[in-house]
């Protein structure tokens, strides 16, 4: 009795995955670790960039509440174990709760591991939007979407690091905007 959108949302949540749309093609990308597919260096940066060091508090968590299917309770959806990071709770000065649903997960141990990872991921906040030369696409083509990008800049060392590519926008014939 569920809509396809509800089923897809449940699958994505249970696998810590996301839906990727590239050129009208859709696929599910898991949260597995990735190797960098390209390095953005000073020679590829063209124009300004937007850099954000921290995430807003509303998007962060220091306590993760869970709901999952309990095999020992006739496969009903129940409130599951809560993950609390005491260090982040003390640092934030207030509880920052997020509730995570795992409708296709029936083992509380898996729920605990996935919730711990999701709470940790919620603390990752650096983001970068930059314009690069179109030649970057020749180096990595379709691997760039949901791929890992290394930024290595001598001019702006505070932006250096590894980022997950969240989007590409092609505005002009020789510029590409990366959302990392």
N-to-C SSE string, H for helix and E for strand: HEEEEEEEHEHEHEEEE
**Which overall shape is indicated by the principal axes computed on the Cα atoms?**
globular
* Largest sheet, spatial ordering of strands: 4-9-13-12
Number of DSSP strand runs: 13
Radius of gyration: 19 Å
Roughly what fraction of the amino acids lie in strands?
Answer: 35-45%
How many alpha or pi helices? 4
Overall pLDDT, averaged?
83
N→C terminal distance: 37 Å
Helix coverage percent of residues?
A: 10-25%
Low-confidence stretches: none
Structural class: alpha+beta
Largest sheet: 4 strands, antiparallel
Structure characterization notes:
The protein has 180 residues and is α+β, with helices and mostly antiparallel strands. The protein contains 4 helices and 13 strands. A 4-stranded antiparallel sheet has the order 4-9-13-12, with no helix packed on it. Strands 5, 6, 7 and 8 form a 4-stranded mixed sheet that branches. Strands 3-10-11 form a 3-stranded mixed sheet. The chain is globular. The mean pLDDT is 83.
What would you say about this model in short?
The chain has helices at residues 4-14, 86-92, 108-122, 136-140, and strands at residues 18-22, 25-29, 36-41, 45-52, 63-70, 76-79, 83-84, 97-102, 127-133, 148-152, 161-164, 167-172, 175-179.
Notable features of this structure?
globular; 4-stranded antiparallel beta sheet; alpha+beta; 180 residues
Reconstruct the topology from this structure.
Elements: H1 4-14, E1 18-22, E2 25-29, E3 36-41, E4 45-52, E5 63-70, E6 76-79, E7 83-84, H2 86-92, E8 97-102, H3 108-122, E9 127-133, H4 136-140, E10 148-152, E11 161-164, E12 167-172, E13 175-179
Parallel strand pairs: 3-10, 5-8
Antiparallel strand pairs: 1-2, 4-9, 5-6, 5-7, 9-13, 10-11, 12-13
């Amino acid at each position: 009795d569920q809509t396809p959108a509800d089923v897809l949302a449940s699958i994505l949540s249970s696998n810590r995955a996301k839906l990727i749309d590239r050129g009208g093609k859709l696929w599910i990308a898991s949260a597995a670790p990735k190797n960098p597919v390209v390095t953005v260096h000073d020679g590829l940066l063209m124009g300004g960039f937007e850099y954000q060091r921290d995430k807003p508090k509303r998007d962060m968590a220091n306590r993760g509440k869970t709901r999952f299917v309990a095999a020992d309770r006739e496969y009903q959806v129940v409130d599951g174990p809560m993950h609390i990071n005491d260090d982040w709770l003390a640092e934030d000065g207030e509880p920052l709760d997020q509730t995570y649903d795992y409708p296709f997960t029936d083992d509380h141990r898996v729920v605990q591991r996935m919730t711990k990872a999701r709470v940790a991921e919620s603390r990752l906040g650096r983001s970068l939007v930059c314009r690069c030369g179109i030649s970057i696409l020749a180096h990595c083509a379709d691997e760039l979407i949901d791929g890992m990008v290394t930024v290595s800049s001598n001019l702006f060392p505070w932006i250096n690091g590894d980022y997950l590519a969240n989007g590409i926008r092609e505005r002009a014939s020789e510029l590409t905007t990366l959302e990392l």
